[in-house]
Write a structure and sequence with these properties.
Chain A is an alpha/beta fold. Chain A has ten helices and four strands, in the order αααααββαααββαα. The longest helix of chain A has 14 residues, at 11-24. The chains are: A alpha/beta, B alpha+beta.
Protein backbone atom coordinates (compact mmCIF):
# COMPACT_ATOMS: atom_id res chain seq x y z
CA UNK A 1 0.00 0.00 0.00
CA UNK A 2 1.48 3.32 -0.95
CA UNK A 3 1.57 6.06 1.57
CA UNK A 4 -0.99 8.21 -0.18
CA UNK A 5 -4.71 7.97 -0.26
CA UNK A 6 -6.92 8.44 -3.33
CA UNK A 7 -9.82 10.76 -2.84
CA UNK A 8 -12.21 7.88 -3.37
CA UNK A 9 -13.67 7.82 0.12
CA UNK A 10 -14.41 11.47 0.68
CA UNK A 11 -11.27 12.47 2.54
CA UNK A 12 -10.89 15.63 0.50
CA UNK A 13 -14.36 16.83 1.43
CA UNK A 14 -13.81 16.03 5.10
CA UNK A 15 -10.49 17.85 5.18
CA UNK A 16 -12.01 20.94 3.59
CA UNK A 17 -15.02 20.80 5.91
CA UNK A 18 -12.80 20.55 8.96
CA UNK A 19 -10.60 23.44 7.84
CA UNK A 20 -13.63 25.64 7.17
CA UNK A 21 -15.18 24.72 10.51
CA UNK A 22 -12.00 25.49 12.45
CA UNK A 23 -11.68 28.86 10.74
CA UNK A 24 -15.36 29.57 11.30
CA UNK A 25 -14.98 28.84 15.00
CA UNK A 26 -11.91 31.03 15.29
CA UNK A 27 -9.63 28.12 16.24
CA UNK A 28 -7.43 28.90 13.24
CA UNK A 29 -7.24 31.65 10.67
CA UNK A 30 -7.01 31.05 6.95
CA UNK A 31 -3.75 32.97 7.02
CA UNK A 32 -2.25 30.56 9.54
CA UNK A 33 -3.27 27.62 7.38
CA UNK A 34 -1.81 29.18 4.25
CA UNK A 35 1.43 30.06 6.03
CA UNK A 36 1.63 26.54 7.38
CA UNK A 37 1.20 25.06 3.89
CA UNK A 38 3.87 27.44 2.59
CA UNK A 39 6.30 26.40 5.33
CA UNK A 40 5.74 22.79 4.51
CA UNK A 41 6.06 23.10 0.74
CA UNK A 42 9.01 25.51 0.65
CA UNK A 43 11.88 23.13 1.53
CA UNK A 44 13.15 20.81 -1.20
CA UNK A 45 16.05 18.40 -1.71
CA UNK A 46 18.15 21.13 -3.28
CA UNK A 47 18.75 22.46 0.22
CA UNK A 48 20.29 19.19 1.31
CA UNK A 49 22.24 19.00 -1.94
CA UNK A 50 23.77 22.37 -1.13
CA UNK A 51 25.11 21.01 2.16
CA UNK A 52 26.46 17.88 0.49
CA UNK A 53 28.20 19.79 -2.29
CA UNK A 54 29.96 22.04 0.20
CA UNK A 55 31.00 19.05 2.29
CA UNK A 56 32.45 17.40 -0.80
CA UNK A 57 34.53 20.48 -1.60
CA UNK A 58 35.57 21.63 1.88
CA UNK A 59 36.83 19.11 4.47
CA UNK A 60 36.44 21.67 7.27
CA UNK A 61 32.78 22.18 6.36
CA UNK A 62 32.32 18.42 6.22
CA UNK A 63 33.61 18.15 9.79
CA UNK A 64 31.28 20.96 10.92
CA UNK A 65 28.33 19.33 9.17
CA UNK A 66 28.96 15.98 10.81
CA UNK A 67 29.50 17.57 14.19
CA UNK A 68 26.54 20.00 14.28
CA UNK A 69 24.17 19.65 11.37
CA UNK A 70 21.85 22.47 12.38
CA UNK A 71 24.60 25.04 12.70
CA UNK A 72 26.31 23.92 9.51
CA UNK A 73 23.00 24.15 7.64
CA UNK A 74 22.42 27.64 9.00
CA UNK A 75 25.91 28.64 7.87
CA UNK A 76 24.75 27.94 4.30
CA UNK A 77 21.45 29.72 4.71
CA UNK A 78 19.36 26.59 5.33
CA UNK A 79 16.99 26.90 8.28
CA UNK A 80 17.08 23.66 10.26
CA UNK A 81 15.84 25.21 13.50
CA UNK A 82 12.54 23.31 13.51
CA UNK A 83 14.37 20.04 14.12
CA UNK A 84 15.42 19.31 17.68
CA UNK A 85 18.53 17.55 16.42
CA UNK A 86 19.86 17.14 12.88
CA UNK A 87 22.47 14.46 12.49
CA UNK A 88 24.35 14.09 9.20
CA UNK A 89 25.82 10.68 8.40
CA UNK A 90 28.81 10.26 6.15
CA UNK A 91 29.08 7.42 3.67
CA UNK A 92 32.59 6.08 3.10
CA UNK A 93 33.97 3.52 0.68
CA UNK A 94 33.43 0.89 3.39
CA UNK A 95 30.20 2.10 5.03
CA UNK A 96 26.80 2.94 3.54
CA UNK A 97 23.96 4.42 5.58
CA UNK A 98 20.25 4.20 4.85
CA UNK A 99 17.57 6.05 6.79
CA UNK A 100 14.09 5.00 7.83
CA UNK A 101 11.42 5.75 10.40
CA UNK A 102 9.79 2.38 11.04
CA UNK A 103 7.29 3.84 13.52
CA UNK A 104 5.92 6.72 11.48
CA UNK A 105 7.52 9.10 8.95
CA UNK A 106 10.28 11.03 10.70
CA UNK A 107 12.32 12.70 7.97
CA UNK A 108 14.49 15.84 7.78
CA UNK A 109 11.70 17.89 6.19
CA UNK A 110 13.30 21.33 6.61
CA UNK A 111 16.29 20.03 4.61
CA UNK A 112 14.75 17.67 2.07
CA UNK A 113 11.09 18.74 1.90
CA UNK A 114 8.32 16.17 2.11
CA UNK A 115 9.33 12.51 2.00
CA UNK A 116 8.46 10.43 -1.06
CA UNK A 117 5.38 8.24 -0.71
CA UNK A 118 7.45 5.05 -0.56
CA UNK A 119 9.38 6.32 2.46
CA UNK A 120 6.17 6.37 4.51
CA UNK A 121 4.91 3.04 3.13
CA UNK A 122 4.56 0.03 5.39
CA UNK A 123 6.60 -1.98 2.87
CA UNK A 124 9.70 0.25 3.01
CA UNK A 125 9.49 0.79 6.75
CA UNK A 126 8.98 -2.91 7.36
CA UNK A 127 11.59 -4.33 5.00
CA UNK A 128 14.54 -1.96 5.01
CA UNK A 129 15.49 -2.72 8.62
CA UNK A 130 15.31 -6.46 7.97
CA UNK A 131 16.62 -6.90 4.43
CA UNK A 132 18.28 -3.60 3.55
CA UNK A 133 20.40 -5.02 0.74
CA UNK A 134 17.36 -6.48 -1.00
CA UNK A 135 15.54 -3.16 -0.66
CA UNK A 136 18.53 -1.25 -2.00
CA UNK A 137 18.74 -3.69 -4.91
CA UNK A 138 15.09 -2.92 -5.73
CA UNK A 139 16.11 0.73 -5.89
CA UNK A 140 18.88 -0.24 -8.28
CA UNK A 141 21.72 -0.09 -5.78
CA UNK A 142 23.79 -3.24 -5.41
CA UNK A 143 26.46 -2.88 -2.73
CA UNK A 144 29.39 -5.26 -2.47
CA UNK A 145 29.47 -7.39 0.64
CA UNK A 146 32.63 -5.70 1.89
CA UNK A 147 30.69 -2.43 2.22
CA UNK A 148 28.98 -2.30 5.61
CA UNK A 149 25.30 -1.33 5.46
CA UNK A 150 24.09 0.67 8.46
CA UNK A 151 20.34 1.17 8.76
CA UNK A 152 19.39 4.13 10.95
CA UNK A 153 15.88 4.01 12.44
CA UNK A 154 14.67 7.49 13.47
CA UNK A 155 12.89 6.52 16.66
CA UNK A 156 13.24 9.75 18.65
CA UNK A 157 13.91 13.46 18.07
CA UNK A 158 17.00 13.16 15.90
CA UNK A 159 16.53 13.55 12.16
CA UNK A 160 19.07 12.23 9.70
CA UNK A 161 20.54 12.89 6.28
CA UNK A 162 23.28 11.07 4.40
CA UNK A 163 26.31 12.61 2.70
CA UNK A 164 26.81 10.16 -0.16
CA UNK A 165 30.19 9.40 -1.70
CA UNK A 166 31.37 12.00 -4.16
CA UNK A 167 31.21 10.57 -7.67
CA UNK A 168 34.40 10.16 -9.71
CA UNK A 169 35.11 12.65 -12.47
CA UNK A 170 33.83 15.66 -10.52
CA UNK A 171 37.15 17.33 -9.76
CA UNK A 172 37.06 21.10 -10.13
CA UNK A 173 33.26 21.32 -10.24
CA UNK A 174 31.53 24.24 -8.56
CA UNK A 175 29.09 23.92 -5.66
CA UNK A 176 26.17 24.35 -8.05
CA UNK A 177 27.46 21.72 -10.47
CA UNK A 178 28.02 19.25 -7.65
CA UNK A 179 24.67 19.97 -6.00
CA UNK A 180 22.95 19.12 -9.29
CA UNK A 181 24.33 15.58 -8.98
CA UNK A 182 23.01 15.02 -5.46
CA UNK A 183 19.65 13.26 -5.63
CA UNK A 184 17.10 13.10 -2.83
CA UNK A 185 17.39 9.32 -2.83
CA UNK A 186 21.17 9.51 -2.32
CA UNK A 187 20.59 11.63 0.81
CA UNK A 188 18.20 9.01 2.17
CA UNK A 189 20.63 6.25 1.24
CA UNK A 190 18.61 4.28 -1.32
CA UNK A 191 20.57 5.59 -4.26
CA UNK A 192 23.84 7.07 -5.41
CA UNK A 193 24.44 10.57 -6.73
CA UNK A 194 24.38 11.11 -10.47
CA UNK A 195 27.63 10.84 -12.33
CA UNK A 196 28.73 13.67 -14.59
CA UNK A 197 27.76 13.29 -18.23
CA UNK A 198 30.52 11.57 -20.16
CA UNK B 1 2.24 -9.91 17.27
CA UNK B 2 -1.23 -8.63 18.15
CA UNK B 3 0.26 -6.53 20.93
CA UNK B 4 2.12 -4.44 18.38
CA UNK B 5 0.93 -0.96 17.65
CA UNK B 6 -0.33 -0.80 14.05
CA UNK B 7 2.38 1.67 13.13
CA UNK B 8 5.14 -0.58 14.48
CA UNK B 9 5.92 -2.34 11.21
CA UNK B 10 9.69 -2.83 11.42
CA UNK B 11 10.56 -6.31 10.18
CA UNK B 12 7.24 -6.97 8.45
CA UNK B 13 6.34 -6.86 4.78
CA UNK B 14 8.80 -9.42 3.45
CA UNK B 15 8.00 -10.30 -0.11
CA UNK B 16 5.89 -7.18 -0.65
CA UNK B 17 7.05 -4.89 -3.40
CA UNK B 18 7.72 -1.26 -2.51
CA UNK B 19 5.66 1.02 -4.73
CA UNK B 20 8.28 3.55 -5.80
CA UNK B 21 5.93 5.90 -7.60
CA UNK B 22 5.95 9.40 -6.16
CA UNK B 23 2.66 10.99 -7.09
CA UNK B 24 3.08 14.12 -5.01
CA UNK B 25 0.38 15.58 -2.83
CA UNK B 26 -3.22 16.31 -3.66
CA UNK B 27 -4.50 19.75 -2.65
CA UNK B 28 -6.58 18.27 0.15
CA UNK B 29 -3.50 16.52 1.56
CA UNK B 30 -1.62 19.80 1.66
CA UNK B 31 -4.60 21.44 3.31
CA UNK B 32 -4.90 18.67 5.90
CA UNK B 33 -1.18 18.93 6.66
CA UNK B 34 -1.44 22.71 6.84
CA UNK B 35 -4.27 22.51 9.35
CA UNK B 36 -2.38 19.96 11.41
CA UNK B 37 0.84 21.98 11.54
CA UNK B 38 -1.06 25.18 12.29
CA UNK B 39 -2.78 23.51 15.23
CA UNK B 40 0.59 22.26 16.53
CA UNK B 41 2.02 25.77 16.12
CA UNK B 42 -0.91 27.07 18.18
CA UNK B 43 -0.03 24.57 20.88
CA UNK B 44 -3.23 22.60 20.65
CA UNK B 45 -1.36 19.29 20.70
CA UNK B 46 2.15 17.88 20.41
CA UNK B 47 3.75 15.61 17.81
CA UNK B 48 3.69 12.76 20.33
CA UNK B 49 -0.06 13.09 20.83
CA UNK B 50 -0.53 13.10 17.07
CA UNK B 51 1.42 9.85 16.70
CA UNK B 52 -0.48 8.25 19.55
CA UNK B 53 -3.79 9.26 18.02
CA UNK B 54 -2.75 7.65 14.72
CA UNK B 55 -1.81 4.45 16.58
CA UNK B 56 -5.19 4.50 18.32
CA UNK B 57 -6.91 3.98 14.98
CA UNK B 58 -6.19 0.29 15.30
CA UNK B 59 -4.84 -2.15 12.75
CA UNK B 60 -7.79 -2.24 10.35
CA UNK B 61 -8.18 1.52 10.00
CA UNK B 62 -4.42 2.00 9.91
CA UNK B 63 -4.08 -0.29 6.91
CA UNK B 64 -7.16 0.99 5.11
CA UNK B 65 -6.60 4.71 5.46
CA UNK B 66 -3.79 6.45 3.61
CA UNK B 67 -1.09 8.52 5.24
CA UNK B 68 -2.87 11.88 5.33
CA UNK B 69 -6.24 10.32 6.08
CA UNK B 70 -4.78 8.70 9.20
CA UNK B 71 -3.34 12.00 10.32
CA UNK B 72 -6.63 13.75 9.64
CA UNK B 73 -8.45 11.25 11.84
CA UNK B 74 -5.82 11.78 14.54
CA UNK B 75 -6.26 15.56 14.43
CA UNK B 76 -10.03 15.19 14.69
CA UNK B 77 -9.66 12.90 17.70
CA UNK B 78 -7.33 15.35 19.44
CA UNK B 79 -9.65 18.28 18.77
CA UNK B 80 -12.34 16.35 20.64
CA UNK B 81 -9.97 15.28 23.42
CA UNK B 82 -8.87 18.88 23.93
CA UNK B 83 -12.53 19.94 23.89
CA UNK B 84 -11.91 22.34 21.04
CA UNK B 85 -14.67 20.58 19.13
CA UNK B 86 -17.54 18.42 20.21
CA UNK B 87 -17.74 14.99 18.65
CA UNK B 88 -20.91 16.02 16.86
CA UNK B 89 -18.99 18.77 15.09
CA UNK B 90 -16.67 16.38 13.28
CA UNK B 91 -17.43 15.98 9.57
CA UNK B 92 -19.62 12.96 8.72
CA UNK B 93 -17.58 9.85 8.08
CA UNK B 94 -14.80 10.89 10.44
CA UNK B 95 -12.54 8.01 11.41
CA UNK B 96 -11.47 9.68 14.66
CA UNK B 97 -11.01 7.59 17.80
CA UNK B 98 -10.80 10.06 20.73
CA UNK B 99 -9.47 8.62 23.95
CA UNK B 100 -11.38 9.38 27.15
CA UNK B 101 -9.62 11.56 29.69
CA UNK B 102 -9.66 8.87 32.39
CA UNK B 103 -8.00 6.42 30.02
CA UNK B 104 -5.36 8.98 29.04
CA UNK B 105 -4.57 9.59 32.71
CA UNK B 106 -4.38 5.88 33.47
CA UNK B 107 -1.93 5.13 30.67
CA UNK B 108 0.17 8.20 31.41
CA UNK B 109 0.42 7.23 35.10
CA UNK B 110 1.64 3.79 34.18
CA UNK B 111 4.14 5.30 31.76
CA UNK B 112 5.39 7.75 34.38
CA UNK B 113 5.97 4.90 36.83
CA UNK B 114 7.90 2.95 34.22
CA UNK B 115 10.00 5.95 33.30
CA UNK B 116 11.15 6.59 36.83
CA UNK B 117 13.34 9.48 37.81
CA UNK B 118 16.61 9.80 35.95
CA UNK B 119 19.74 10.28 37.99
CA UNK B 120 20.28 14.05 38.06
CA UNK B 121 24.01 13.46 37.99
CA UNK B 122 23.79 12.07 34.49
CA UNK B 123 23.11 9.09 32.28
CA UNK B 124 23.22 5.54 33.56
CA UNK B 125 24.99 4.25 30.44
CA UNK B 126 28.02 5.41 28.53
CA UNK B 127 29.40 4.89 25.05
CA UNK B 128 30.61 1.34 24.59
CA UNK B 129 28.32 -0.19 27.24
CA UNK B 130 26.76 -3.51 26.35
CA UNK B 131 23.00 -3.28 26.78
CA UNK B 132 19.86 -5.19 26.01
CA UNK B 133 16.54 -3.67 25.04
CA UNK B 134 13.88 -4.68 27.55
CA UNK B 135 11.08 -6.83 26.27
CA UNK B 136 8.32 -4.81 27.90
CA UNK B 137 4.76 -4.58 26.57
CA UNK B 138 3.34 -1.36 27.99
CA UNK B 139 -0.22 -0.45 27.05
CA UNK B 140 0.34 2.88 25.42
CA UNK B 141 2.50 4.88 23.06
CA UNK B 142 6.15 3.89 22.91
CA UNK B 143 9.04 4.71 20.62
CA UNK B 144 10.89 1.43 21.05
CA UNK B 145 10.16 -0.72 18.01
CA UNK B 146 8.94 -4.26 18.68
CA UNK B 147 11.67 -5.72 16.47
CA UNK B 148 14.36 -4.49 18.89
CA UNK B 149 12.81 -5.74 22.12
CA UNK B 150 15.01 -8.26 23.88
CA UNK B 151 17.89 -7.63 21.46
CA UNK B 152 21.51 -7.10 22.52
CA UNK B 153 23.31 -3.96 21.44
CA UNK B 154 25.99 -1.49 22.39
CA UNK B 155 25.65 2.16 23.33
CA UNK B 156 27.22 4.21 20.54
CA UNK B 157 26.21 7.68 21.73
CA UNK B 158 24.64 9.56 24.62
CA UNK B 159 22.24 12.24 23.40
CA UNK B 160 21.18 13.91 26.61
CA UNK B 161 17.83 14.15 28.39
CA UNK B 162 14.60 14.42 26.41
CA UNK B 163 10.95 14.64 27.39
CA UNK B 164 9.42 11.19 27.74
CA UNK B 165 7.31 10.53 24.63
CA UNK B 166 5.28 7.92 26.53
CA UNK B 167 3.75 10.61 28.73
CA UNK B 168 3.92 13.49 26.23
CA UNK B 169 1.62 11.40 24.07
CA UNK B 170 -1.16 11.77 26.66
CA UNK B 171 -0.92 15.50 27.17
CA UNK B 172 1.59 15.45 30.02
CA UNK B 173 4.76 17.49 30.28
CA UNK B 174 7.13 14.61 29.49
CA UNK B 175 9.00 15.22 32.75
CA UNK B 176 11.03 13.76 34.32
CA UNK B 177 13.18 13.76 31.20
CA UNK B 178 14.73 10.49 30.08
CA UNK B 179 18.26 10.03 28.86
CA UNK B 180 18.37 9.06 25.21
CA UNK B 181 21.02 6.83 23.67
CA UNK B 182 22.08 5.82 20.21
CA UNK B 183 22.26 2.04 20.39
CA UNK B 184 24.02 0.01 17.73
CA UNK B 185 23.03 -3.54 16.90
CA UNK B 186 24.58 -6.19 14.71
CA UNK B 187 21.89 -7.12 12.22
CA UNK B 188 22.74 -10.78 12.84
CA UNK B 189 21.76 -10.25 16.50
CA UNK B 190 18.45 -8.66 15.55
CA UNK B 191 17.30 -11.14 12.88
CA UNK B 192 17.97 -14.85 13.22
CA UNK B 193 17.69 -15.18 9.43
CA UNK B 194 19.67 -12.10 8.42
CA UNK B 195 21.18 -12.77 5.02
CA UNK B 196 23.70 -9.94 4.81
CA UNK B 197 27.31 -9.80 5.98
CA UNK B 198 28.18 -10.03 9.66
CA UNK B 199 29.40 -6.43 9.65
CA UNK B 200 25.98 -4.98 8.79
CA UNK B 201 24.57 -2.80 11.55
CA UNK B 202 21.40 -1.11 12.69
CA UNK B 203 21.14 1.96 14.90
CA UNK B 204 18.19 3.34 16.80
CA UNK B 205 17.69 5.95 19.49
CA UNK B 206 16.42 4.28 22.66
CA UNK B 207 15.34 5.83 25.98
CA UNK B 208 17.12 4.80 29.16
CA UNK B 209 14.18 3.05 30.81
CA UNK B 210 14.13 0.60 27.90
CA UNK B 211 17.74 -0.49 28.41
CA UNK B 212 19.32 -2.89 30.85
CA UNK B 213 22.99 -3.73 31.23
CA UNK B 214 24.21 -7.06 29.92
CA UNK B 215 27.36 -9.07 30.28
CA UNK B 216 29.06 -8.79 26.92
CA UNK B 217 30.52 -11.96 25.50
CA UNK B 218 32.80 -9.84 23.32
Amino acid sequence: MSGHDPDGDGQAGRARALAAHLVGKGLLTQREIDASIERQTAPHPGLGARLVARAWIDPAYRRDLLHDGKQAAADLGVDASQMTRFDVLENTPSRHHVIVCTLCSCYPRPILGEPPAWYTSAEYRGRVVREPRAVLAEFGLALPRDVEVVVVDSTADRRFMVVPLRPRGTEGMTDAQLAALVTRDSMIGVGLPLTPAA
Amino acid sequence: MSSRLPSDVGGTGLGRRIDRRDPGHADWELLAAGVRMALIARGLFRWDEGRRAVEALGHERYRRLGYEARKLAAVEALLVEKEALARAELPPGSQAVPLAAAERRRIASAARRRGGSPDPAGPSFGAGDAVRVRDDRPPGHVRTPAYLRGKPGRVAGVHGPFGNPETLAYGESGRPAQWLYMVEFRQADVWSDYGGPAADLLRADIYEHWLEPREAAT
